[in-house]
Hints:
Low-confidence stretches: none
Radius of gyration: 20 Å
Shape: globular
CATH superfamily of the domain at 91-153 and 160-207 and 296-328: Vaccinia Virus protein VP39
Strand content: 15-25%
Helix content: 25-40%
Mean pLDDT: 94
Structural class: alpha/beta
Largest sheet: 8 strands, mixed
Amino acid sequence: MRTPRLIGWPTATASTGAAQAAAEAERAALVAGLLAQPAQVSPKYFYNALGAHLFGAITELDEYYPTRTEAAIFSRHGAAIAAAVHAVLPSGHALVDLGAGDGAKAEALFSLLAPGRYVAVDIGLAYLGTALARMQQRHPQLELVGVGLDFSTELALPPGLVQGPSLVFYPGSSIGNFGPGESLRLLRQARAVAAGGALLIGVDLAKPRAVLEAAYDDALGVTAAFNLNLLRHVNRVLGSDFEPRDWQHVALFDEPHARIEMHLQARRDLCVRWPGAERRFAAGERLLTEYSYKWTVEGFAAVLRDAGYARVQHWSDERDWFAVMLAWG
């Protein structure tokens, strides 16, 4: 049986000085966000080990429709999606899974897509390694590679890892975390990674405010715990003293910008300190933790064309709440 290969990219292959510089740059970006007006923290800080487990629990909630709706699309249209992919890509292509997590979404498609290599990309390499080890037992002959990468800033894989046209897979509507300019940049980089192949992506569509806000503010408070856990992750990275009990989860739909916003709101006047600086928050002041943009099929197809994809095909559910889109050319 094969053994999954894990690559910490790019810092694991860089010199000690370069790795230290990258860590300092990440810390500087985090500090800049905390000192901004309004304060903000990248949603990538949701995903430490506990955050990954909490997000898994979110996907089981009645209110959180994206995961099960996307899964239903693949269940209903999987054969047609696979046929469209195979019309574009040669057999044995690499499947590059962005934000792979436990890899379950991609693994469910292995029998249909028949990849020759599975490349799982995620910011949490340790969590990814555990998931790939389990996956390898179920797929002993498939080559599995895990890449630890924060592709929110740049999507570029180690040289030689993807050879020839490949399928980039980005499910779950995570593209919504990027603003219009950022999403265009990422889609262009995904096209370069695919090397003449294709992109298969999940896109959350516009729908009634009540449905959207409930999905990001569930009755059990799991999403609130997920949001608050970000503060503990920031504390570990920055050495700050955020106290989660001082903050309240807020989720709302910004209709003019067609996006859900998640915030943490200070319950009282407080001061957060970290080595070398501090930030005071007034009671009721908010810390932005996530945007989640919602699209129309036509609007997202236009962005894909702007990113250089000549052809776009999509599949949706009966309510048109979610779309899976294949882009190539």
